[in-house]
């Protein structure tokens, strides 16, 4: 499921983040991928150990905690601390599938990447190119969102970032291990959750709502892995 979550960061947060990233020292993005990824990846990243990455990553995590839509869509069990990248001067990332298992920092074990997330930090008109292109069974989807907006998509999908031919594209990116591994099951739960919320707002029959809520939790109980 490809889902757009608007307004994860507000204008002030985006402006502060962009200012801090403007003065940051970046490293070659190829340092964090395997040999195959390195052949197609042309961008810059904040080093994982950088105090700025840690600080800005915490801001992103705090903003996500206040987003019910993010939780409903991804059902997070673990989140990899957010990273930051920059594409400019023709920088791009060719078609690839994200690594399946990643190490959490400080000996925190591992994370299976179920959901990939990109948080846009520049306005779309500030740069040319830089679309995230996600390929699935329905074709290719081009994503280029306003600053502060997030896109979540299955980590199993083939995707790429188109070359940035003018300006620069700053973004935060991270992965979620979901309580529910299967994308189709996660989507069913999300749609059921959305329906329950809408019916609750529409003052629907309480007994029927209670039953639907029970179905939601019992499906989650069947599918959740912790
Ligand atoms: Ni990727």
What key phrases describe this protein's structure?
226 residues; alpha+beta; Jelly Rolls; DNA Excision Repair, Uvrb, Chain A; 2 domains; 8-stranded antiparallel β-sheet; 5-stranded antiparallel β-sheet; 6 helices; 17 strands; binds nickel (II) ion
Describe the structure concisely.
This protein is 34% helix and 31% strand. The protein is of the alpha+beta class and 226 residues long. The strands form 4 sheets. Strands 1, 2, 4, 5, 6, 10, 14 and 17 form an 8-stranded antiparallel beta sheet that branches.
Give a topology summary.
Elements: E1 3-5, H1 11-22, E2 27-28, H2 35-40, E3 41-42, E4 44-45, H3 51-65, H4 68-74, E5 76-79, E6 83-88, E7 92-96, E8 101-103, E9 110-112, E10 115-120, E11 128-129, E12 132-136, E13 139-143, E14 150-154, E15 158-161, E16 164-166, E17 168-178, H5 183-201, H6 206-223
Helix pairs in contact: 5-6
The site of nickel (II) ion has 4 residues, from loops.
What does this structure look like?
The chain has 226 residues and is α+β, with helices and mostly antiparallel strands. The chain folds into two domains: 3-178, Jelly Rolls (Sandwich), CATH 2.60.120.620; 183-223, DNA Excision Repair, Uvrb, Chain A (Irregular), CATH 4.10.860. The chain is built from six helices and 17 strands. Strands 1, 2, 4, 5, 6, 10, 14 and 17 form an eight-stranded antiparallel sheet that branches. A hairpin with a 6-residue loop joins β8 (101-103) and β9. α5 runs antiparallel to α6. The radius of gyration is 18 Å and the shape is globular. The two termini are 21 Å apart.
């Amino acid at each position: 499921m490809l889902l757009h979550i608007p307004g994860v960061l507000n204008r002030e947060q985006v402006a502060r983040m962009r200012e801090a990233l403007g003065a940051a020292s970046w490293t070659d993005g190829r340092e964090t991928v395997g040999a195959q990824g390195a052949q197609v990846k042309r961008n810059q990243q904040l080093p994982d150990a950088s105090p700025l990455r840690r600080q800005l990553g915490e801001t992103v995590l705090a903003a996500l905690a206040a987003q019910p839509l993010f939780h409903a869509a991804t059902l997070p069990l673990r989140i990899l601390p957010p990273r930051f990248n920059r594409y400019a001067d023709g920088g791009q990332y060719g078609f690839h599938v994200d690594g399946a298992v990643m190490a959490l920092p400080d000996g925190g074990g591992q994370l299976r990447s179920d959901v990939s997330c990109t948080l846009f930090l520049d306005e779309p008109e500030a740069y040319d190119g830089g679309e995230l292109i996600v390929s699935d069974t329905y074709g290719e989807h081009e994503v280029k969102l306003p600053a502060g907006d997030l896109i979540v998509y299955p980590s199993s999908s083939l995707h790429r970032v188109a070359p940035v031919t003018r300006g620069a594209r700053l973004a935060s990116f991270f992965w979620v291990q979901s309580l529910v591994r299967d994308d189709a099951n996660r989507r069913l739960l999300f749609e059921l959750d959305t329906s329950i919320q809408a019916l609750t707002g529409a003052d629907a029959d309480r007994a029927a709502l209670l039953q639907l809520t029970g179905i939601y939790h019992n499906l989650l109980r069947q599918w959740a892995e912790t």
